[in-house]
Write a structure and sequence with these properties.
Structural class: mainly alpha
Shape: globular
Radius of gyration: 12 Å
Number of domains: 1
Strand content: under 5%
Helix content: 55-70%
Order of helices and strands: HHHH
Number of helices: 4
Largest sheet: none
Length: 85
Amino acid sequence: MTTAAQIRERLNTFLAGDLSQDEFEDWFAVYSWNVHGTRDHNTEELVGAVELAFAEYSNGHFSDDDLRRELASLATDPSVAREIV
């Protein structure tokens, strides 16, 4: 299982351009699998927020810039417990 810190590190690598979006999504799918139900509430919330950001992007509600902005916010903000608008 991955930690919130590892997810943020990968997000920053993606945002810096050292990892493609597909590479990040592939890594995220593997390492966030089954994180729900763990005792690590912070990681669970971060995984949910990242999943929501990509869902918004996939559904056309976020542009490329919106997605990057949201992911940058998640990568730097340790309190992910907020409403995403």
